[in-house]
Amino acid sequence: MHKVRLESVRRKSGGRIHLTPRVPQAGPVTTLCGQTLADSSYAAVSDDPDCTNCIRRSNDPARISGAFFAQEEGSELLRLSLEQAQSRKPNLRVISGHGAEREKPVVWPAAKPPPEVVPDRVGELVTRGFKPSGEGVWRSPQGVIVKMRKHLRPRSDGKDWRFAELVFEGSVVATRIEAGIRIRAGDVEVNPTDDGVEVQLKKK
Questions:
Q1: What's the pLDDT tens digit per position in 160-195?
Q2: pLDDT tens digits along 39-59
């Protein structure tokens, strides 16, 4: 750390040794303790100062700065400040080693659309277990395709979608029961109701 160098001065007639920024070759000199020594009444000395006020104020940067500018020695103070600032300049070199990890780019997950909300029932179809495969088309886990047809006029009972067709490559069993005919194809069952049918997965 750079320190401001002060000089010692004492009256030629004797007395305390004071501190001052610079001892001029001619003209008055002002000490840190505030005394002004007239021209030719002082001399520079190499002894340590013994003025209590000068010693105390030599630790006060504001006092030292004011004394330098009072003697028009501000340029010296500025030079020392610049040297001190350069000595504090941080080392901006990046040292890479084997253990240094490279900064990885942040990969944000792709935005996903909100899951489609499937109602529990679509007209005569109980949708539990079915997957939608298009407008009015549903597929069961075993691959049974159920096609529904929507009424042009809304029904008062809410069953706008009615069973239209069932497609399955395996065997289809139709059984007559009291209410009508029950159809079973793979894991799908079509049962008659009072006003139509109900399509759902077979109950286990």
A1: 889 999 999 988 999 998 888 999 999 999 999 988
A2: 888 888 988 899 998 888 888
- What percentage of the chain's residues is helix, strand, coil (to nearest 5)? 15, 30, 55
Q: At CA 37, angle to CA 31 and CA 43, rounded to 5?
A: 90
Cα separation, 190 vs 162, whole angstroms: 12
Rounded Cα–Cα distance for residues 44 and 18 (Å): 10
User: Residue-wise over 125-152: b if at least 16 C-beta within 10 A, else e?
Assistant: bebeebeeeeebbbbbeeebbbbbeeee
Residue 36 near residue 29, CB atoms below 8 Å: yes
Rg (CA), the chain: 50
Identify the top-confidence range among 28-37, 63-72, 103-112, 167-176.
167-176
Count of CB atoms situated within 10 Å of the CB of 172: 15
Determine phi and psi for 102, rounding to 5 degrees: -75, 140
Residue located via tokens 């059984």: 175
Rounded to the nearest 5 degrees, what angle is found at the Cα of 157, between the Cα atoms of 151 and 163? 45
